[in-house]
Amino acid sequence: MRIDVVSVSRQFGEFQALRSVDLTVQSGELVALLGPSGSGKTTLLRVIAGLDWPDAGDIRFDGASTGGRPAGERQVGFVFQHYALFRHMTVFENVAFGLRVRPRKERPSEAEIRRRVDELLRLVQIDWLADRMPAQLSGGQRQRVALARALAIEPNVLLLDEPFGALDAKVRKELRRWLRRLHEQLGMTSVFVTHDQEEALELADRVVVMNKGRIEQIDTPARLYDNPATPFVSSFLGDNNALDCHVAAGSVLVPGIDTAALERVDLPNGKAKLYVRPHDIAISADPDGEARVRFVSAVGAFVRIEAELPDGRIVELTRTREEQAEEPLALDARVGLRLYRAQVFPGS
To answer: 3-state DSSP helix/strand/coil percent for the chain, to nearest 5?
Structure first.
């Protein structure tokens, strides 16, 4: 099922949640909506589902407008952030609910309901919990029940709103890998909302970065991370140093940093803004260096270092433990900094 979001806008009072958004999700694709709070990602998901209505624009499934069709007629499975399970029902009955409430003419037989629910519980690997109540389950198990319930109606589209937001970090990591494998197995068109950058980059075929009701950039995780298209995407996605710089004849100049390795930029002479990730800065001991080490901390496999430039600005960078062991850098040591990859945008 292909989804087309066509010039969709949505306003709540004076707050503009969506501003003429255009987006196409191809059939079988897994797309992440990523952005800060208030960026419009959950509103967009709800509009696609039919749980909210656009003030302007249209949602189309395989080219057909969904205008006027409520959520129940869109064949959409929706997984809520906080599961929304029925506390008085067993796991089995929670999953069967969407089938049992269908009109009599459309309702499967009891044998078919049991077959389909048993199959789904095996698919999400919780068939042994069929007779449990939601209160007896862990957070990860409840999320699997919610997913099985969404799949029970055999939807054409699966929508997930912060599906792992209520879980601890370890369980989130396990479940998102499991969800990716499940998506590959089912091949269903899926859209999920998240504020977790790692989750979006690991799970999605493409990531949609949203800001203030607009789409800033749509791309594959690798291209999005390596080639952010706007200053917002550069600053929002991953760790970044944002530095004022100067462009002269295509060269980028930053006091205290060697930028000779950077590619020439096609920008007018004058002030600009440079974004560089901590792992894209090389550091080495240099008695004549213009920067000084102000902080050193070993975290996991990497060492985080903060260096002060001549004008007092702080640059954060990382190096491996092996590099730090071979050439220890202590507090107040003079160092040379060299950039070999960065994004540069016009203006200050």
So the answer is: 30, 35, 35
Helix, strand or coil, per DSSP, at residue 52: coil
What are 291's strand-pairing partners? 335
pLDDT band at 348 (very low <50, low <70, confident <90, very high): low
Return the pLDDT at 166. 64
Q: Are 189 and 156 contacting, i.e. CB atoms less than 8 angstroms apart?
A: yes
> Looking at residue 249, what is its pLDDT?
93
- Are 145 and 133 spatial neighbours (Cβ–Cβ below 8 Å)? no
Q: What is the pLDDT of residue 112?
A: 92
Torsion of CA 99, 105, 110, 111, to 10 degrees: -100
β-bridge mates for residue 194, sequence order = 34
Using only the alpha carbons of the chain, give its radius of gyration: 25
What is the value of pTM for the model shown? 0.87
Length of the chain: 348
CB distance 40 to 212 below 8 Å: yes
- Under DSSP, the state recorded for 258 is B
Instruction: Look at residue 124 in the predicted model and tell me its pLDDT.
Output: 84
Q: Which of 266, 224, 208, 243 is nearest to 339 (CA)?
A: 243
